Amino acid sequence: MKKWLAISMSTMLFGSALAGCSSGGEKTTEKETGGKKEEKVEVTLAGWGGNPTEQKLLQQTLDEFQNKYPNIKVKYEVISDQYMDVIKTRLVGGEGPDVFYLDAFEAPALIKTGALEPLDKYVTDDFDINDFEKPLLDAFKGEDGKIYGFPKDYSTLALFYNKKMFQEAGVEVPKTWDELREVAKKLTKGTQVYGFGVAPELARLYYIAESKGGKVVTDNKASFADPKVVEALQPIVDMHLKDKSAAQPSEVGANWGGEMFGQGKAAMVIEGNWAIPFLKDTFPNLEYGTAEIPTINGKKATMAYTVAYVMNKNSQKKEAAWKLLSFLTGKEGMKIWTSKGLALPTRKSVAAELGFDKDPLRGPIVAGASYATVWQNGTNLPIITNNFNNQFVSAFLGQRPLADALKEAQETANKEIEGNK
């Protein structure tokens, strides 16, 4: 989770400390220009931090905005720790920023509180909503069908494979999950190199869990003990325990899949766009390729992780806040922000203009956006996820049968959900 959040996840920001209160009165100054009084407005923007290149890209985007709208000053704040807790506290206290980041995972719960401004009424024809990848846009719609945020960037998952290892083993890039399992066996070299590196967590396995027709979440409660879900996930466990062809990063001394892959301890991993700059910087001599995730039961599937800009419903500067939000998620602003490929554009036209849809490494990641399952499902997904992860790992390590582990996890999750009512 930390890895994909670090993209944008795609992904992130920098800035100075915020001292203002957006829900208070409008703070303006007046400037004499040509005999007319020009009103200046300060809009607050909040997000989490990013690497220096991302900081520079965001600053370039904000500079361009302020060149276009000289009367609007953007005050940006980085909230480095406990981001959502800080945002929620400030919103409740009437001190929330005018515009801020919202991860799709957290969106359903915050939308339900009524703290966000619906954005449909601000949209004009030139904003072109249909240009957004549909699954990513839909992630920020409320139960009322209104749009509460526009996605700024994203990543899906793709298969990363070591070209040299594939060539030496004489195997082709797998097109189906069954092929992946067989290829993983041929690529495995004892405990020195595993054919497949696994991230045993729901954020990475959700699309697999539902591939047999079962549901991880039903009516905002855990339902992943469904035999169809168990059947879908069992091959992952079997690759580790029976085939001995898969391992999680910690078993080989790595912190995450990208590192495990870069160190040559896994011939294949399933990762997102964030792995590309990491591999370039950390393992510049690694020869690898990417491909869309092998099909499951004849169907394409992947996950998507996305973040939106949203507006505080209590903002006293909504007109200026919309100008900022719409510029950041419009074609012009998005092109600047995603120009280096550290974050991928949620607009199809921008992805095409920047060539990411044809890029040898990013192309498969972009291709998945149209059919991806976005990482979110209702207000109780955090509770459901924690319980799933705790018990799935125990099954993955062979400590208990998968069906038993998921049954206990589901029961515990739903007790917690009931207790929170």
TrEMBL record:
Mitochondrion recorded as keyword: no
N-terminal signal peptide: 1-19
Key word Nucleotide-binding present: no
A biological-process GO annotation: maltodextrin transmembrane transport
Entry keyword set: Signal, Transport
InterPro entries on file: SBP
Gene Ontology cellular component annotations, sorted alphabetically: ATP-binding cassette (ABC) transporter complex, substrate-binding subunit-containing
GO terms for MF: maltose binding
Pfam families: SBP_bac_1
Record family assignment: Belongs to the bacterial solute-binding protein 1 family.
PANTHER family with a match to the protein in the record: MALTOSE-BINDING PERIPLASMIC PROTEIN, MALTOSE_MALTODEXTRIN-BINDING PERIPLASMIC PROTEIN
Protein name (Swiss-Prot/TrEMBL): Bacterial extracellular solute-binding family protein
